Amino acid sequence: MKYTSLPVYQQKERILDNLSSNQVVVVQSPTGSGKTTQLPVILHEAGYSDRGIIAVTQPRRIAALSVSEFIAKQLKTGYPGLVGYKMRFEDKTDNTTRIKIMTDGILLQEMKLDPWLSRYSVVMVDEAHERSLNIDFVLGLLKRVLQARTDFKVIISSATMNTEVFSAYFDGCPIVTIDTITYPVTVV
Length: 188
Fold this sequence. Notes:
By secondary structure, the protein is α/β, with parallel strands linked by helices. It has one domain: Rossmann fold. The protein is 40% helix and 21% strand. The protein has eight helices and eight strands; from the N terminus they run ααβααβαβββαβαβαβ. An eight-stranded mixed sheet has the order 4-3-5-2-6-7-1-8, sandwiched between helices. Helix 3 packs across helix 5 (61-74) and helix 6 (104-113) packs across helix 7. The longest helix is centred in the last third of the chain and has 16 residues, at 133-148. The radius of gyration is 15 Å and the shape is globular. The protein starts with 6 loop residues before the first helix and ends in an 11-residue tail after the last strand.
């Protein structure tokens, strides 16, 4: 599979331009377009991992594990290393990890110890449309981090969500909608 042919990757300049001039960007695109797996890679390639860890939250453990495995395979790295994952009772990260996939509950736990997420440059909240209690807490706490840290970035992504509500909550942040045909999702 050629990852650069995925719709999200083809829109990387548009996404990065919006992120460079805004602290928060909402990305909406259909399932299978590469949001979950390619946005962290795009951020890494753009240098965001030089400034801190790129975090990607997932609502479920199995999603966190499969996303991290996919990205690690794409970047040809093992655990722990450039890509890692963390969930309850399992931590496959170390001090070299730059892309960290975790459950939203783990991010909440980390925010207890480090409320300003000082080790992170970007947090991507994936599947935000699921609107669990954890995701709602994460979004509220991220808003506080954004006010305290002007260097901090947030990406809210989902295939199906009311983008205007999230944009309004984050002070009218831009919405990048990637309209495309729905691509089949295959297990690799």
